[in-house]
Amino acid sequence: MEERIKEKIARIVGPENLTDKLIDLIAYSYDASPKSGRPDLAVWVESTEQVSKLLALADQERIPVVARGAGTGLCGLAVPARGGIVMDMARMNRILEISIPDRLAVVQPGVVYANLQKALEPHRFFFPPDPASGQMCTLGGNVGTNAGGLRAAKYGVTKDYVLGLEVVLASGEVMRTGTRTIKSSSGLDLTRLFVGSEGTLGVVTEITLKISPLPNEKTTAMASFDRLEDAGEAVTGLMHSGVIPAVLELLDKSTINLFREHSDLDLPAVEAMILVEVHGNTPDDVAFQMNRVAEVFRSCNAREVKVAQTEAEAERLWLVRKSIGGLTGKISVSQAPEDVTVPMSRITEFLRRCEGISRKHGLLILNYGHAGDGNLHPNVMFDRTDPDQVARLEKVLTELHELAVDLHGTLTGEHGIGLTKAAHMHLEHDPVAMRTMRAIKHTLDPHNILNPGKMDLD
Ligand code: LAC
Ligand code: ZN
Fold first, then answer.
1. 0.85 surpassed by pTM
2. Ligand 1: which of 31, 250, 414 to mutate, most ligand atoms within 8 Å of CB?
3. Which one of 133, 189, 326, 437 has the fewest CB atoms closer than 10 angstroms to its CB?
4. Looking at ligand 1, which atom is closest to the CA of residue 321?
């Protein structure tokens, strides 16, 4: 990067708040995806004013800018695909306001997700979306990806909770969207336009989030099924039961086998397991819900339904779900955790056809995920140092995405498009929709400086 530009940036953020040391630039080349791309410079910003001045300068000089949270994204959203500036938002990490009467929290984008939950807990409130990376990820990243998580089955995803935003546009202008009210029918919904826009339309500098009262009671159960089809029917059967579980997770046979062979957790030799959590306000309320759930599971030929009797037992059941990512390291050098989402009635069909794709290309796929909203995580095991396996992985991913769309689903339920799915946007979005998205991008960012190369927008 030219010295004169670096000097201008140093005047905006202070000379100690930028770096072009190789070791830093290498660190900023990655997120949690297999993609990488080296920036020319990284800056630590502290205020909306600094973001505004930086974007105005970058726009004038045509320098790409990638806003970055904690780098936990799984599809390359925070990877500087075209070099330029990485804008690290981690220091904009203040919770500006919690208002219980107005049922909202106002936060800066660098607030770590778990820290907001900690601050809300004394009020007996919570922010319902719950990405699996919650201990590290930032709320700015949650907005950028429209993050979901385990509880989305009942509570929905980030976009259902964003009431308003402060956004800096590519020009450096600062815009406020939305309101501090729980409802609004005023104007075009610019807030939603920015949620899930992966930093391609503007840089979010303040977020107003709707929050919810914590449920008083919860219960967990686990059910095992000899046939995958029965587990699939249990998921759809629940929708007739009048109960919406807060969490409904499914594990397929390959995932169960991973535990049987590589952990001391004692899982049965079955084709599928379902983990379920119900929330309510009294012990009777959760017992009623769990009875309904267990009835459905039994009517779908569950081999066993185990309701956790204590908090410790519940935690042991959830340990299974939470350990999957870590355990995959025992059987594979690299993993590609996808997040295709299908209508819930198509889950079994998706999983069976997925087995076919796995066999055809000779790469093991573990399937687990958020069955309660159709969001599965086919996690493809491969070795990134073997070009043949990488080539086969590409074929597997293409076929997985085609399959999701064929079943009227979507390429991504919660991780986003980023770099890894960009080439497949056209599978899901027709040419008119793609043209409309690109027109919006061009209007807001005419020189394509904001996170270029993502979502196939340029
Ligand atoms: C999960 C991540 C992969 O649910 O979305 O574990
Ligand atoms: Zn997930």
1. yes
2. 414
3. 326
4. 6
